[in-house]
Design a protein that fits this description.
12 copies of one chain form a homododecamer. The first copy, chain A, is α+β, with helices and mostly antiparallel strands. The first copy, chain A, has 1 helix and 3 strands. Chain A starts with 8 loop residues before the first strand and ends with a strand.
């Protein structure tokens, strides 16, 4: 990457989910974005939320993140 | 819907307009999103704005909202 | 109400839902608070969200609000 | 309206009230602004609040909004 | 004051200063507003800032506040 | 207090009022919380507001604060 | 869960602590809420903070979260 | 200017426009405020927005700013 | 453009870069959006950032902006 | 002080504490900054918090503030 | 630690990075701060971001945090 | 620069001033930081403000920015 050569980026907002951890929910959102977008570059976490089961266990982490990728 | 089975969502930002009400502006934005996106799931209102006519009447509600849908 | 006579208020955060309108969702949240709390005084809307049905119709408005009431 | 011809706008912050709806509270604030200001152009909702009666009914919507108008 | 009878309020943003305290800076801003506006009703503190003298003493509190008054 | 031994805290939102000062309004809110809650630990000021009398004097400081206490 | 049948939720603000991880601090806050509240539904992380020991090790994660539950 | 001698300031919110630059839009808003207000003192940029022409060129910068002036 | 005839807009988030100025970075982001989107209408600056070279010179302005366009 | 002659300021974030008042906590933070920094110029309050004793008395005000000073 | 004996704290903003987890990135930032600062006391997470590799894997967590330490 | 090799950054908050433009005020703040800090990497604009002269001309742009640099 070279600074100053007029790259353009776009950000999309994606929500990843995981039963395990915040990091895994992030990776899952990035995995999905990777399927349809090229040149993913960075992410920014917007919100961390999650679902609670009837037995009081956190059954799902939901991480809202912005994913930035370079436009060709 | 089942929690914990690794769904992924995307959010897009849309502005609906209506001459009648905030609710109608929301529905109109959702209607348009429904035309090109599958599996719309929820919306979040970001801003409520509007236009004022020369005679001082609110002639249009403009509702900025995020619409979330599940990625296949 | 008299100002300056050392009233104390508490705020609770409640989410009302309605299939009809934002106003109805607010009233429903207030109705429920009224069942268990005395001397409700005012509300402040925090967020307006909603659910979208499979057919692309807004099927539920969800209004997050703070409700303030005077402590005896 | 023509873009780029150096219009200047001012925003004032007004609170409209209504016993009926958010939309009516907005219109009432705009009505009042129209009495003393020319060329009202748009509004932006800042806060939605309200009063709750002793019987637990929402008796008044209070909408804080910014109203923009063009300066001559 | 009676709720639900369609009062309209306006808010202005004023900065009061005082060498003594935050409260005095608030009162001074309100005093000035009272000179040119009728029916002041409430204030909301936006920011508390201040000046520091060369000898490291706080020589002035600056309180940015919104002052609301009822429009006739 | 020992760090790392899995304490749990809860925060409640309370509004204290005083004719005298911001600090007094804070103490009054804490006094009231102390009546019904054990093990109050700290507070965080959210908003400072107040009422203005017809003669333009600040007749009441209203301080919105979060009060945290340890759950047994 | 069925949308549109007028459920009402309440949110409470709880701080969980853990010596291990952010996720564990979340679960501990939820565990405690589960003891006194029914029908916990979701959580939203507000802040992540922590204590640092004299030897420069993070000895405790403190996660401030809102926990939502359905009111009967 | 002398600190601590109880100056009072007011802030107004103005939107300047320019076809050229952010700085020019700021100056134009200040120019207009100068016509009707004395003793302008400082400005604070709130938002930078702009219009895009049909040919994809930025045809107007719109800068929302607060302008502070001393009250006599 | 006619108000009240139910236009719908979408906003996308794009980052433009320039070695010269904030304005140039904005135009470059808009240029790129114009290539793949019709009917661009306005932009809103979200963040202004930049890269600093080893010699301490700002070598690149990075402007994060939302670009709104009308949906057909 | 002369405007426009290219002064540069730095801000540091300091937390002052006091058993007495918000103002005293501010002055104490400024006193400490004055010991190691020259040319302190102004402060901005970020947060007001405090500790509550076992007997429910506010035993300490904690004021988080930014202190700005001119760089030589 | 004793409350009310006029401690003063300073906060610095540090960004830790880790290939493994958010918690590890926090610890690494704290480790570095510990090298040059005494009496570290707590941290507050400001942002969680990260880098994405060409193969779509999160290769680095970047955690922006404020670290507070007591001034002697 | 290589991602994932555990770099640590620090951010400082600096205010640059210029009589000419926002960009020049940014560069001047960076210039000053470069004198006392190594390995400056990026900046983030926090606020744009300015002074207005008695004749209504903007006589100084004041840009508050965070400057990040790598810690050795």
């Amino acid at each position: 990457m070279t600074y100053g050569d007029t790259r353009i980026y776009k950000k999309v907002e994606v929500i990843g989910t995981s039963t395990e951890s915040v990091e895994m929910a992030i990776q899952r959102a990035v995995d999905r974005a990777q399927k349809s977008l090229d040149k993913l570059s960075w992410f920014e976490v917007q919100e961390v939320r999650g679902h609670i089961n009837d037995d009081g266990k956190v059954s799902e982490y939901q991480v809202v993140l912005k994913i930035a990728f370079e436009l060709a």
